[in-house]
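Continuing the series of single-chain predictions for the mutant panel. This is the parent chain; the variants come on the following pages.
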Amino acid sequence: MATTTEQQNPVGFREKLAEKLGALSNAKYRRYWLGSLASVGAIQIVTMAQGWLIVDKLGGSTVDVGVLGGATAVPTILVSLFGGVLADRLDRRMLIVAVSAASTGLLMLLAILDATNTVMIWHVVVIASAQGLVMGFDGPVRSSYFPLLIERRHMASAVVLGTVMWQFSRLVTPIIGGVLITYGGTESVFFVGVLGWVSMLLVMISLRVSSPPLGTSRNYVGDIVDGVKFIFSRRDFLLLIGLTYSTHFFGMQYLQLMPFFAKRFGRDADGFGIMLSALGLGALAGTFTVGKVRANPRVGYFMLGGTITFTVAVISFAFSPSFYVALAFLFIGGLSNTIFFVVAMTVLQLRVPEQMRGRVMGIYTITFSFIPLGGVMGGYVASIYDERVAVGIGAAILASIFLFVGITQPMIRNFNGTNLEEV
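Parent structure:
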C-alpha cells in the first residue's frame, strides 16, 4: 500500500501544521484561549447590559453613565500596578483562578438584584467598582501568563489570536445581548456572564502550567517604581503605551455613549447590539488585515494611518444622518483601529524582559480602563452639548496626538515588520 508524504515524514508534517496553526498548535494554549473567550465574552456582554440597565430600566442620565465608567476605571487603574507586581511574584495561574471566582460572585449578586427588581443605580456602580478592582489583577496577569504556554516564535500569532478573541466577542455578544435584553431582560445577560466566568474558572483549575516566582527587588512600591523606570528608559515602550492610553481615552468614548446614539436613531436594545456588532465585525476584519501587513517593512506607517482613518470614521459615525450609515462608519473604524493595537502589543511582548513582563503588562493593561474613564469626560461634554459633540471632540484630539507623534517620532513610523524585536 502506498504511503502518503505525511506518513513518510510525520515530524515534518507536524512542524508544517504547527506553523499554520501558530499558537493554537499548543493544546494547553487552545484550552486557555477558549476559556478566555468565554470570560471576555462575559466582560463585553455585561458592560453592555450595565449601561442599558442604567439608561433604559433605571432612567439614568449621561452623567450616570459617566459615573459608572469612572467607578469601573479608577479602581482598575490603581490596582493594575500592584497586579503587575503580583504577576511577577506569585503563581499567575492561581491569580487567574482567584479573579475568575471573584468575578463569578460579583456578577451573580448583580443578576439576583436585577432579577428581583431591587437593583438601583448605586448598586450597579458599587458592583462595577468592585469588579474594577478585580479586573486590575486580571489584565496584567493574563497578559503575562499566556507567553508561558507558547513558543517564542508563536508570540505574534498569540497576540493576533488574543485580538481575534476580543473582536469576535465584540461581534457576537452585542447581538446575543440585544436579544437577551429584549426577551429576558438585563438580568438574563448577567446570568450568562456568570456562566462565562465559571468556564474560565474551570479551565484554569484544570490547566497545570504555573509560573515560577521570578524574584523581587525590595517591596511592592519598589517593584512598581522599577517597572515605571524601565518604561521611561525605553522610548519605544513609552510612546506605544502613551498612544494606547490616548486611543482608549479620547477615541473610544462612543462606546460608553452608545446607548444614547441607539436612542437617537430610534432603536432599542436590538439596535444597540447591532451597532456594537458592526464595530466588532470591522475589528475582526481588521485583525485578519493586519496579518497581511504586519510583516511589511513600513508597518509603522500602516499603524499610524490606521488610527487617523479611525478618527475620521468615528467623527463621521457621530454625525451620521441615519442608522445604516452609522453602521458603515462603525465597521470602518473598527477595522482601521485594530492595526495599531496588534502591532503595538506584539512589539511590547517581544521586547519586554521576562522578569519585567508582569509589571510592564500591568502598566500597559491600565489602558483598557481608559475607555470608561474617557466616558466620564464624554458624559460631561454630552450633558452640556450632546453625545455627537462629545465623541467628535475626543476623536479630533486623538487625531492631533497621532499626527504629532507620526511627524516628530521616526522610531514609531519606521517600525519594520520584518523584525519587530529589534530596538
